[in-house]
Specification:
The complex is a heterotetramer, with 2 copies of chain A and 2 copies of chain C.
Chain A (H helix, E strand, L loop, with lengths): L6 H17 L11 H16 L18 H13 L8 H14 L2 H13 L4 E4 L15 E5 L2 E12 L6 E7 L10 E7 L5 E6 L8 E12 L3 E2 L5 H13 L7 H16 L6 H29 L8 H23 L15 H13 L7 H12 L6
Parallel strand pairs in A: 1-4
Antiparallel strand pairs in A: 2-3, 3-7, 4-5, 5-8, 6-7
Helix pairs in contact in A: 1-3, 4-5, 4-6, 7-8, 7-9, 8-9, 9-10, 9-11
Chain C lengths: L6 H17 L2 H8 L6 H10 L17 H13 L6 H15 L2 H13 L4 E4 L6 E2 L6 E6 L2 E6 L3 E6 L8 E6 L6 E2 L4 H33 L1 E2 L2 E2 L4 H29 L5 H27 L10 H13 L4 H18 L4
Parallel strand pairs in C: 1-3
Antiparallel strand pairs in C: 2-6, 3-4, 4-7, 5-6, 8-9
Classes of the chains: A alpha+beta, C alpha+beta.
Chain lengths: ~375, ~375, ~350, ~350
Amino acid sequence: MDISYSPEQIAFRHEVRAWLRANVPEQRLPSSDTPEGWDAHREWEQKLFEGGFAGIHWPREYGGRGAGVVMQAIFEEEYLLAGAPERISQIGQNLMGPTLMVHGTEMQKQQWLRGILSAEDIWSQGFSEPDAGSDLAGLRTRAVLDGDAWVINGQKIWTSYGANADWIFALVRTDPESPRHAGISFIAVDMKTEGIEARPIRQLDGRAGFAEVFFTDARVPLANVIGDVNAGWQVAMTTLGFERDAPSKPWARYRRDVAELARLARARGVENDPVVRDWIGALFADAEAYRHHATRTLSRLANGESLGPEASMTKVLWSEMERRTYEAGLDVMGPYGEVLSTESPADDPSLWHTLYWFSRAATIYAGTSEIQRNIIAERVLGLPKG
Amino acid sequence: MDISYSPEQIAFRHEVRAWLRANVPEQRLPSSDTPEGWDAHREWEQKLFEGGFAGIHWPREYGGRGAGVVMQAIFEEEYLLAGAPERISQIGQNLMGPTLMVHGTEMQKQQWLRGILSAEDIWSQGFSEPDAGSDLAGLRTRAVLDGDAWVINGQKIWTSYGANADWIFALVRTDPESPRHAGISFIAVDMKTEGIEARPIRQLDGRAGFAEVFFTDARVPLANVIGDVNAGWQVAMTTLGFERDAPSKPWARYRRDVAELARLARARGVENDPVVRDWIGALFADAEAYRHHATRTLSRLANGESLGPEASMTKVLWSEMERRTYEAGLDVMGPYGEVLSTESPADDPSLWHTLYWFSRAATIYAGTSEIQRNIIAERVLGLPKG
Amino acid sequence: MKFDFTDEQYALRDAARELFEKESSPARLRELWGGGARDARLWRAMGEMGLLGLMIPEQFGGMGGDEVDLVLVLEESGRAALPEPVIETVAIAGPMIAAGGSDDQKQEWLPRLASGDAKVTVQVEASPFVVDADIADALLIEKDAALHLVPSTHFDAAAIQTEDPSRRLFTVTAKLSDATRLGGGLFSQMFLRGAWATAAVLNGIAMRLLEMTVAHVKSRQQFGRPVGSFQAVKHKLASAAVLIESSRSCTWYAAYALAKDLPDAPVAISAAKAYASEAEGYINTEALQCHAGIGFTWEHDLHFWLKRGRALEQAYGSARHHRAILAHHVFDELDRGSER
Amino acid sequence: MKFDFTDEQYALRDAARELFEKESSPARLRELWGGGARDARLWRAMGEMGLLGLMIPEQFGGMGGDEVDLVLVLEESGRAALPEPVIETVAIAGPMIAAGGSDDQKQEWLPRLASGDAKVTVQVEASPFVVDADIADALLIEKDAALHLVPSTHFDAAAIQTEDPSRRLFTVTAKLSDATRLGGGLFSQMFLRGAWATAAVLNGIAMRLLEMTVAHVKSRQQFGRPVGSFQAVKHKLASAAVLIESSRSCTWYAAYALAKDLPDAPVAISAAKAYASEAEGYINTEALQCHAGIGFTWEHDLHFWLKRGRALEQAYGSARHHRAILAHHVFDELDRGSER
């Protein structure tokens, strides 16, 4: 057992830290939901690219750094601790790029990879539909062959960056006769295509961030299908495998959350309430368990293993801890918990509420806790299907 | 809304209290698992009968007092607070007697009711089987017609007082061809019948109390079937209805448990630990909620309503509160929690452990919490079957 | 023994529900959330229906009822996420002025409270905030172990931005004097009344959250079957139902204990508020989990109840606060050796 | 970066498991529960296999290993509900004497500990009880911020009746003197080592409880299908699996931190013990619930692990105790402004 970093990894950490210190904007960028925010975020991504920090886990032949998962995790940790901006390139760099490398033709790679890296093309993901949430195979968006194009009709939902993205990769039903998982294709669509309309979804905290994407007779070139026609489910499984086997969320995030909770307790004058301290102690233990479990899974990835169904365990851990932490925060805030103005003991009450609501979404997005527990029960413990 | 008692009810309470004060043995009776304990308990029941406190809810025509549910609840509350012995006549008085009154022939009533009241006959219940726990309709014990008798073969389990009882009422499969709920009969069996063997079950706290009852070619008179042959399921539903619509467990029990927990905390020197106090406060709130909810259901029963599926709510409430209370007790005991000798801060550590383990059984017997939640979801909330 | 309401009490509950459904529909609530102004019609209609004067003596134009008469109306106000100071004006100020006000104070305020011509808001020491202080005609305030009834000319209100725009909070600065004092001996009652009424409102919120969730999971299909047929979902909602119904029993008893001035009223109230906060907290979490994506949208009504619920869990003492009071009571009883 | 064990460490784990299955089977355990005497063969076999000397320096006949070498063996001792003082003798006394003993003390004790010729038990201030004090050759005891190593000639043991007869507890009275002192500076380590080792044993107990429960619900049929196919059961066991695996990660890290003498070792240990107690506590409750009736019988083996688990949850500091330590650490870090 050796949980230390190699000299090369330590050097990389210092390089990242120094670069971020020099380059991270002092002012938080305007929200990526706004036009000026979107431009600012894209500029930041271009700066990252120029600094050599785009696609650090991509192979060198595709313009990446060829960094292993440990370096990738180091990068994410430093990125978090530096308070650097959200990365609107994530879906392209983490999902679409790697999927293209496996299933794309030479021409498709030529066409898209470079733009993903340079942030010229921001990608979004079109999997979920109003009636296909947990049950992805229930999707209904249809593509019908018409001459030189697939004609797409239907609707996607919960599309991150969907309102502003340049491209979307979507699952569409290309053979309506086939059963659920068959007859689906994986297709790349230029968001400027006629017949596509993206409407931002206003979330319950009042912010945007996701979009609904409507397809009305949108014509997409035949060559935009990734993998074989009607074999999109397998391509999508590759994509979700990349999501699953990515290094976990940086553990530093959760230790910071606990510290933030302690800071709130102090600001509220309940620092010495042993009940509050009991919660804080429990959440710190949770954060420690997550930290070490994340390191253990990282080590497995670094040694060439795939997580498979065990990735669900990590998801359950961080999502439920996140929710518990913020719910404790609301209790610690007491009568200030509902307040958005400066009376709040939170540094930025509006951001605090956004994080609170987002913590409650954590047990839903990327597979609900219920789905994750089904996976663990059936595929880790071997319990029979219900 | 009027939650007060009538003068008649108050008078009854005083009568019960005075009688119990005068008659409850000062020394706890030996365990009913032992021969001398069994005799002592039967004697106690006879004393209750002579005092006019057997079958207080039975109609006068059958020798009862004709007391309503409120008086019945008053009796149980006083009985608990007086620290009176467990009642080995319960199954006869609360289940078999009332079932006979509904489904029994005149002759059957003549044969059995009087002995139930006078504690000459102690009854036990033969429903559960090793492979039919939550799934009662999965029972396998068979009765085959042979001349003037049903010949019974099979096994019952978790039979309270089964090792010593005089009679057992059992569900047996009389038509093996019929589907699950059909083809079952409800039959009364003299435990002295040849071919019946009762083996006490040793529980994980080392005590007995339940038995397994084995039937090997046991011949039972045809006249012992209650209700129609093959219509035993309906009779059993009547029996379970009496169990369901009985007044809930006395709330005073749970307030006493919380006080006991506080006493343990004091004995352990953690009375001022605010985390322990937070638990105690929460459990007291639980006990209050149970108390008032039990009163509300009692009021419904007193006004002629049946609880139906809502009885499951009360079961979930008291069983889970009971478990939480004793689990908190174990934590409060700290290193003393595993101790059975006088070092323990519990007055009677051996009894304390028995109560602890019994609290963990509370979410299982009389329908597991899982079954209760299914009932609530489907029959109170109207959610679809899974 | 009748732990139930009269036909009249149920009829009033039904009338209140109908009024709230009409005059304070989710669509109307959405207008407020969008910055719209409150409609004075609702409060007046409540006055006309007699809801506002329920606990005000008949001689001052009220119904002369008690907390048992009011408790189902409070539940309904929670079910409707009513954007009005029902807790403060109806459950606290009315009975407090009736009990402790001078003759002049009673003459001045009670008839106007009963008719809906006046609103009174409340500040307890446990919270720095006051609801609807800008439109209140008077403020009932705890200060140095005394109560004051301060007319709106004698206090200033500064708005606080809140997450729930239909629950408007303010900080106030009030000029107190001997003239503003309300009769003594009632100090602790204000907080207790607020805790009790908030428990009732929380129960109503919880009921609505459960209703919405049950309806959603019955209709929402995944994997070719209703989401509500999955045992994980069923068991959560069954647990919520158990908590909510027992919480209602607990709060109803507290109403009865207040109405009859029983000695265990304070304990019953702390138990009710602690329990109601936990019960609502449970369904608050699971309602959103069961709604999943759609529940996170501004366009769905669910968040009105989610936010109001989270706010009221903390109002007039959190569960944690009241549990500490209850623990104190348990040890106190132990010392007095009185378990019966 | 390799957060994993070596092939040798896994081989030793497998060997330990095989030994425990053979020499400490549930049937053997049942004999002890029935009043049977302990078999000295097991401890000797552990010595021969090198398990007892894992953390004793090679010069004294041990393997010179560290906590990482030991942690899987501790898990196995929990999986087997081993009725031996592994925590005290192997995880605490051996390394403490090696670190703080005088040359004489080392010479006298370490070789015998490694071979299995001697057992040492432990008393920490947090508990009035000592395991296996009647058969221990020495007692390591905390007193007035100092450590003493007391030979069996200098202490008396009085038996305490416990619920788990294979976990034998005693109260002791020991004669301490300067001659019994063990080197300074190690005071707090004894409790921490005990907490860490107990966390590892708890993880093993939890693993066994989960294994037994999974096997049971796969085979037990109700309503015409395996009980393990019901979502309510599946989700509980999935939750248990998540807790147990992450608890193991946490305890493994604590082993590593101890072995490397990292500055965060104390915090890692408190986190590990708090978490392991909760993880085991969860499956302890659900294992019995999922077994239902049969799990409540004396004849079923489940209760060996249920009782051992509940006892160890409290040993060397309950979850509550360690959470208080962790909260202290969090505020301490806040004061030092060091989040990185």
